[in-house]
Each structure stands twice: as C-alpha cells, then as structure tokens.
Amino acid sequence: MTAILIIFAASLSANLAFAVVHADIWVPIAILVGWYFADLASGVIHLYMDYRPCRSGVGFDDLYFYTGDRTSQHYQDLRRQVMAKVGPFERLVYDFKNHHPRPDALGRRSMIVQIGSTVVAVTPLSLLLNLSCWVLSPPGWVIAGFVALMVGGTFAQYFHGTLHRDDNPTIIILMRRLGLLMSPAAHQKHHDSLKRDFATNNGWSNPVINPVFRLLYRHGWLTDAGLEPTG
C-alpha cells in the first residue's frame, strides 16, 4: 500500500503539473464538472453497496447483530474468522451495512484505511492519464477535470468519514463553507431514511440520484432485505 500511495501521489502530481502548465479559461469549469462527477460516483456506489445483499452463510449476520462488547477478544476473533472467508469486495459490502447502525466507526478510521481501496482502483487511471499527456498532449482543462474527478473519487470515503466526527482539518471546514463538501446535517438526511441523498462528497448529484433510486425501489429492483446481512 505504501508503494501504491507513492506511485499515485507522483502520478497525480505530474497530471496536475501538466494541467497548470497548459491552463486556460476553461480549467475552473472543468474542475467543477470533475468534482460533480466524483460526487455522482460516490452516490451511485453508495446506493449499490447499501442495497446489495451480503454474501450469506459466512457469518456476516453474527457480526452485524453482535450484542456483546465489540472491543472484546471474542468479537475480534469472530470478525477475523468471518473476514477470512470472503474477499475484499464482500468485506466492503458488509462495511456499508455495518456503517448505518454504527456511523461513528467510520470517522474513527485513519485516512489511509478509508482511501485504500479507491487508491488501488484510481492509480492505474492516473498512470493512463500520464501517458495521454505525454502522447496526445490534450488541453489543460481536460486533464484538470480528470484530476478533480480522481481526487474526489479517491477521497470520497475519507470525506464521508469526516461527516461522522467533530475534529476535522481546517481544509475540510473551509471546503464545507465553500459548498465543495457537504455538511453533517445534510448527510444525516440519508441516515434518517436510507432512501435518499446517497452522494457523500457534496450532494450536488443527489437531485439526479434520488429519482433513480425511487424508480428502482418502486419496481422492486432494490429492496430493504439488502440493507442488513441475513443467514
């Protein structure tokens, strides 16, 4: 993970440098568009993960409905046993379910843990963008838009985590004031119903995602049975 983080940081910096050198009047608009699509991606993924059923028969229900001390050795051993039976994707699906009754747990996780899965996914895309800069030399606004998309996508779960804790960096507070990140009060609307406002970066895309969710839910393609592990 350390190596991947270094590669990602270097690759993203190179893309950013290209965008700065080739900047034009369209760069600010492209950045906002990229930021919007990062929010849209956060909402679509959140919606899917919330309502995708967990794999049954591996013990996810025992973890989810555990009534004892979750800091106990017994719980930790149980969690290790269950997680050893599934891959990273199924663990991530479970984490989305587990987040709803225990939202503050996400805020206690380190940034590295929160962005781990997205860094792995985004790094190859950033490297491809490096290649396109070298071979195709696209306009600076194109690269700026993709950089904004990658930053917003990579840090989506970290931004989500900041909504569930009080001690946040100054930059997070500033970005909220500018409307670039959503407030905890706005995100609480999702937790109150689990049927709206799935986007967790800034919520700009929720007016698009909400009617899509209602359509899928009304036709039974998404059901409440997917919200909790069973069997």
Structural summary, described in words:
This protein is mainly α and 231 residues long. The radius of gyration is 19 Å and the shape is globular. It is built from twelve helices and no strands. The mean pLDDT is 95.
Classification by helices and strands: mainly alpha
Separation, N- and C-terminal Cα atoms: 33 Å
User: What is the typical, i.e. mean, pLDDT?
Assistant: 95
Instruction: Please describe the biggest sheet, giving its number of strands, its sense, and whether it closes into a barrel.
Output: none
Based on Cα principal axes, name the global outline: globular
Strand content: under 5%
What is the count of β-strands?
Answer: 0
Number of helices in the DSSP assignment = 12
Name the helicity range: 55-70%
Summarize the structure.
By secondary structure, the protein is mainly alpha-helical.
Helices, strands, pairings?
Elements: H1 2-21, H2 27-51, H3 60-64, H4 73-83, H5 88-99, H6 104-107, H7 111-135, H8 140-154, H9 156-162, H10 170-177, H11 184-193, H12 206-218
Helix pairs in contact: 1-7, 1-8, 2-5, 2-8, 2-12, 7-8, 7-9
Protein traits:
231 residues; mainly alpha; 12 helices; 67% helix
